[in-house]
Amino acid sequence: MKIIITSVFVQDQDKALEFYSETLGFIKKADVPAGEFRWITLVSPDDQGGTELLLEPNDHPAAKEFQKKLFAEGIPATMFGVADVRKEYKRLMKHGVRFIMEPTEMGEVTLAVFDDTCGNLIQIAQK
């Protein structure tokens, strides 16, 4: 058994697709109609056959509340691995990304947390 898709709730699928592809650099793998929304997945450019990230609409009240509470408590919705957190932090800052936690060493891991503009905090980590 392996993880093939993981999801993140988003307030606006178009805005999320733009941010996750143009700003973060993920590659769109699927974008198909799914009722009133779309099934949009992205993959890492370094592992295009790997785990897909689903941009899941937060239309359900439970999803909205879950997303809102995580954000309010400063809890990242997910974590992405990067080779160099400080380098990625500088790159994303140049793109106007707002960080709530600058690169911070925690034992053998360096972390940073940013706002994805779609209702989530996202953590990046370097081992």
TrEMBL record:
Gene Ontology MF terms in the entry: dioxygenase activity
UniProtKB keywords: Dioxygenase, Oxidoreductase
The keyword Nucleotide-binding belongs to this UniProt entry's keyword annotation: no
Residue ranges of every copy of the VOC domain listed in the record: 2-127
UniProt-listed InterPro entries: Glyas_Bleomycin-R_OHBP_Dase, Glyas_Fos-R_dOase_dom, VOC_core
Protein name: Catechol 2,3-dioxygenase
Source species: Marininema mesophilum
